[in-house]
Amino acid sequence: MAGAKVISEFEVLSVDEVGRRRAWTDEEKIRIVEQSLRGHRQGSATARRVGISRSLLTRWRADYRDGRLGSAAPTFMAVSLAASAASAAVVETPPLVVATPVAEATIEVVLGNARRMIVPISIDPAVLARLLPIVDAS
Description:
The chain is mainly alpha-helical. It has helices at about 25-35, 45-50, 55-65, 85-90, 125-135, and strands spanning about 105-110, 115-120.
């Protein structure tokens, strides 16, 4: 064994200038998730083709199903209360919150991050529109 050498081949992987992590936009995530759900293609094949881990694709799929992926700005919808429904409504309050009088109707707004806001029905829509992105982001 005097002339035998053990030389192992190896490949040097370099990190790009931007680093190892990539920033995916919501549109790209949605496109990748929809490709993984289309036809008979498996999630692992789509993840391998795109170059992401299968667990990351699984997380994106869960966010896609729950509506947390690519959520746009909050939208408003018209709500009207009948007089009989307003008087029969029971207002639940979380602990440590002072209950509002029954005469003042409230609206419960559930945000994408599972937070909720209870605001009076008389709130100015412009004030609510400025407040929602702040509460939703934090």
